[in-house]
Write a structure and sequence with these properties.
single chain, mainly alpha, three-stranded antiparallel β-sheet, 8 helices
């Protein structure tokens, strides 16, 4: 079955700090992983995959903010077109069209935003994302300000934030990353006396 990620523009993967691109990529990845499950997959695996797909679907279906960049607006409108082709009318398609249209209305006649302005807008705090949204390893590493290698080393030594695997990809739930950051806050470098 053709899914949303089969025809998404490759540039939608370029800016890991854009919350809309994170949500779109998460949904497309979950859709592909769910459709790639083998026919003989056990019920528990199918149910877990379906649950992750539903969470990603709900995030996009309830999206109420305009896209924050031309790139995100294009990814949103592309996803909306694919959703309509597969499912007909869908809440995800409607929400993504609205986000893209809102972006272009706010941008006026200009179709591009200066690079510095889009970079300043694109970085969003973890608190601004849905707690149930899952981030990929590179996205989580960007938010934690560590390298992907460091994150992988933490996984292999059972340190760092908890993660899950879906479709062969490592995923970090936003709520787990926030909890990890909170638990690791320090008042100083020296122990209390």
């Amino acid at each position: 079955m053709v899914g949303p990620s089969d025809t998404m523009p490759s540039e939608s993967k370029a800016n890991p700090a854009d919350p809309m691109l994170i949500a779109i990529n998460s949904y497309c990845d979950r859709f592909s992983a769910h459709n790639a499950l083998p026919q003989d997959a056990d019920d528990e695996t199918v149910e877990a995959s379906g649950e992750l797909l539903n969470i990603a679907n709900d995030v996009l279906a309830h999206w109420r903010s305009p896209a924050t960049s031309h790139e995100a607006a294009l990814a949103a409108i592309t996803l909306a077109e694919r959703e309509k082709a597969i499912f007909g009318e869908s809440p995800v398609a409607a929400a993504m069209e609205a986000a893209a249209i809102s972006y272009w209305k706010n941008a006026g006649n200009s179709q591009s935003v200066p690079k510095a302005a889009s970079d300043a807008q694109a970085h969003t705090a973890l608190n601004d994302l849905s707690p149930n949204m899952c981030l990929t390893g590179p996205e989580a590493a960007a938010y934690l300000r560590v390298t992907e290698v460091t994150l992988a080393r933490w996984r292999s030594t059972k340190r760092g934030p908890e993660y899950t695997k879906s479709g062969g990809r490592v995923l970090y739930r936003v709520s787990v990353l926030l909890d990890y950051l909170k638990k690791n806050e320090r008042k100083g470098t020296r122990p209390d006396k």
